[in-house]
Amino acid sequence: MSKLVLIRHGQSEWNLSNQFTGWVDVNLSDKGVEEAKKAGRLIKEAGLEFDQAYTSVLTRAIKTLHFALEESGQLWVPETKTWRLNERHYGALQGLNKAETAEKYGDEQVHIWRRSYDVLPPVLADDSEFSQANDRRYANLDPHIVPKAENLKVTLDRVMPFWEDHIAPDLLAGKNVIIAAHGNSLRALTKYIENISDEDIMDVEMKTGEPVVYTFDDKLNVVSKEKLD
Predict the structure, then answer these.
(1) Are strands 2-8 and 177-181 parallel, antiparallel or unpaired?
(2) Among residues 35, 71, 87, 210, which one is catalytic?
(3) How far apart are CA 188 and CA 117, in angstroms?
(4) For residues 227 and 165, what is the distance between their CA atoms, to the nearest angstrom?
(5) Residues 103, 24, 228: CA angle, nearest 5 degrees
(6) Is 9 considered catalytic here?
(7) Which residues are annotated as a binding site for substrate?
(8) Measured CA distances, 165 to 137, 159, 169, 206 (Å)
(9) Domain residue spans in the chain?
């Protein structure tokens, strides 16, 4: 049976300052570094060994993966980075303080933007300092593919081709896989893996730096789920 470990990146500098981050590339905080290292120690204690690693193209997830693999003695494991595992794009909310945004638009509206499955936040303008329109990471993508705002539904649509083409085939081949990514890209995967409803996914949280371990049978049915802490 194959295993899949999901880790939301450790606390980032903007998690700490309570800002909407999305596709903005911010670093881990000191606490986030320690969370990532702790994840690696928990993985080692659990005896988990990986054949393949995946992460996004954002620094906080990449570093989390590297710290976790290093602490578990597996930094050599083959690794693939993809924009499809990026955090949900928060549109024009990116860079804004969450509390100040709630004061401006109201708690209910901000809650809808943050947690609803299919409501888009305001679209980000290409000339915003937080836009990815001219980011070299995405230069080889059709410009129409690079989002200017996403909800969880759009994020799931973006993640699924990578699951189908890479992650699922690895698991079906009996490989153990680790993914270090983001709260919403991992929530999207969780929704698919566990067949969670559009309503119930709103209440699903991913803790920073907490490894979530799935065990699958040879038909990719979930046999067990465990959180390491």
Answers:
(1) parallel
(2) 87
(3) 10
(4) 26
(5) 90
(6) yes
(7) 8-15, 21-22, 60, 87-90, 98, 114-115, 183-184
(8) 21, 10, 7, 24
(9) 1-18+27-88+148-225
How far, CA to CA in Å, does 210 sit from each of 43, 54, 89?
10, 16, 22
Which residue type does 43 have?
Answer: I
Residue 177, H or E segment: strand 177-181
pLDDT tens, residue by residue, 111-163: 889 888 999 999 999 999 999 988 999 999 999 999 999 999 999 999 999 99
* pTM of the full structure: 0.96
Architecture of domain 1-18+27-88+148-225: 3-Layer(aba) Sandwich (3.40)
The encoded tokens of residue 141 equal 């993508």
Burial class (CB in 10 A: 0-12, 13-18, 19+), 97: middle
Q: What is the DSSP string of 60-101?
A: HHHHHHHHHHHHTT-TTS-EEE-GGGSPPP-GGGTT-BHHHH
